[in-house]
Structure formats: structure tokens, C-alpha cells
Amino acid sequence: MTLLVAIAFLAILASLGTALFFMLRGGQAQSSKSRGMAKALALRVGFSILLFVCILLAWKLGYIHPTGIPQGS
What is the pTM of this model? Predict the structure, then answer.
């Protein structure tokens, strides 16, 4: 599970880096730059949602457990 979370986190960071690259790149048509940046940010959102769903699924299947911190008062 730790490896999956690490890979997903790296994919999220890579997608953010790609969006930054498209945002800062000069000398290209504005619509092409915007399209590339929007695609990279959409991938980031998709990776984040996938990571969240995987963590919830792992919790439901018993692969990960709560820390034992009491809930409430």
C-alpha cells in the first residue's frame, strides 16, 4: 500500500510540474499552451481522486487500519 501511495504522489507531482512547464513555456500559441496545461491539471485531479478511492478501498478491505486515536471526547 505504501508503494501505491508513493507512486500516486509522484504522479501528482509530475502532473503539476507538467502544468507548470506549459504555463511558463513561451513562444507558442496561447490556445495550445492552455490546452496542455488544462490536460495536465485534469490528470492531477484524476490521480488525486484515484488515490483517495484506493485508500478508502484499502481501509474497507482491511489493508490499512486506523491509528487508534480515540474519536470524539
Answer: 0.71
Residue 70 CA to residue 26 CA, distance in Å, equals 53
Query: Average pLDDT for consecutive 10-residue bins of the chain (73 residues)?
Result: 85 88 74 80 89 89 81 67
Q: Give the Cα separation of 36 and 67 in Å (integer).
A: 40
Write out the chain in H/E/C secondary structure. CHHHHHHHHHHHHHHHHHHHHHHHCCCCCHHHHHHHHHHHHHHHHHHHHHHHHHHHHHHHHCCCCCCCCCCCC
Alpha carbon separation from 40 to 8, 36, 56, 61 (Å, rounded) = 15, 6, 25, 31
- C-alpha 9/C-alpha 72 separation (Å) is 30
